Amino acid sequence: MNNQAPPTKEKQSDGRPRSASKAHVRAAATIAARLTFEGVSRRYGDSYALKNFSLDVAPGEVVCLLGPSGCGKSTSLRVAAGLERPSEGRILINGQEVSGNKTFVPPEKRGIGLMFQDFALFPHLTIVENVAFGLKALPKEDATREALTMLARVGLEGYAESYPHILSGGQQQRVALARAIVPRPSVMLMDEPFSGLDVQLREAMQEETLTLLRETRATSMIVTHHPEEALRLGDRIAVMRKGRIVQVGKAEELYNNPAELFVARLFSEVNEVSYPVFGGEIETPFGRVAVKDSGDGDQVILCLRQQAIHVSSGAKADGLSGRVLHVTFLGDDAWLDVGVAGFDEPLRVRVLQSDAFEKGTEVQVAVDLAKALVFTRSLEAPTSEV
Ligand code: ADP
């Protein structure tokens, strides 16, 4: 074995040996399992990292856990993997309790694959030894053969005898993925698996990883704090905040019907204006908006997406009068800060750069109020006792 450059095979433009073509190698499918969290809490001293966390992940489903740092995403994975015990509640795999009041199935018996942000490859083991590491139950030859097949699947069999340090970030990520998947786990838990990669590589690796997860049919939970990543990868997204699930659903459901202002802010850039409720509605310069479940005098927050505000100029333009106060160049797009009659603060609007609005332009501003969101609770309002 050596830790020098890999055997020189004819390379593709991305540096992978040609023999690694994905068309010829497919990962073996696993038997997907249902993963269920039932009212799981995890306490550290007086504070809760997870509080009454319930989630049912269907066999073969990919669920993304999305939320800010410290909201309990990793804790939920660690509890599912059996690296930690819940303080309350149960974890079930295919309906069988693996963590509960009196049950604790150790991690190695749960059929779970884990992948972390730092890839955690063993520097003193070759690439093939790294991948074969999780196959200790097999005779060495069989483990090596399976590891090589999986390496071929991720396009890296030419590096089998090399050591991790010669690999690029994306290649290390592929090795970590191969290592996690080669034992054919029925559940894959991935903690920020793309965070260590630069932006361009990240998108390619997201695509590759998703393809591999679909091929193996492993039930998957992927932790991320990037909303776009969750939108791209998840069959469903569970939004977390302060140890709890705020909302879980398909990307479109979360975008169109966010349960809280917090969720709306994750998926779009919004303008927020506070109004008092009278007679079940609020009166805005653009018109009245009906508000459910609020009494007279309650303050609510009107949320207007930046993309849902239409700015135009010229004789035929329609809407409220406004003036462009500031233009921010964003490449293809631009932000306009528009002073609009009836609003104390400028509205921020996202337009195509090619529309070429200039500072000082008199414009007309229109919104589709049917698409406006109204929230009765602000982000700061307590939503849990965590
Ligand atoms: P996330 O993955 O969303 O960033 P974590 O699950 O890592 O969040 O952490 C959730 C909360 O639990 C944080 O406030 C963190 O400080 C706390 N926490 C996590 N692990 C421990 C631990 N071993 N001891 C004490 N507090 C912890």
CATH homology superfamily name of the largest domain? P-loop containing nucleotide triphosphate hydrolases
* Annotation, overall tally of beta strands: 20
Unreliable segments of 5+ consecutive residues? 1-24, 379-386
What share of residues is helical?
A: 10-25%
Radius of gyration: 25 Å
- Ligand species: adenosine-5'-diphosphate
Assess the beta-strand content as a share of residues.
25-35%
- End-to-end C-alpha gap: 52 Å
User: How many discrete structural domains?
Assistant: 2
State the CATH architecture of the largest domain. Answer: 3-Layer(aba) Sandwich
Order of helices and strands: EEEHEEEHHHEHEHEEHHEEEEEEEEEE
CATH topology of the largest domain: Rossmann fold
Give the spatial strand order of the biggest sheet: 6-7-8-3-9-10
Overall mean pLDDT stands at: 87
Largest sheet: 6 strands, mixed
What is the CATH class name of the largest domain?
Alpha Beta
Describe the overall structure.
With about 375 residues, the protein is an alpha+beta fold. It folds into two domains: about 240 residues, 3-Layer(aba) Sandwich (Rossmann fold), CATH 3.40.50.300; about 110 residues, Beta Barrel (OB fold (Dihydrolipoamide Acetyltransferase, E2P)). It is built from eight helices and 20 strands. It has a six-stranded mixed β-sheet with strand order 6-7-8-3-9-10, with helices on both faces. Strands 15-19-16-17-18 form a five-stranded antiparallel β-sheet, with no helix packed on it. It is globular and about 80 Å long. The protein binds adenosine-5'-diphosphate.
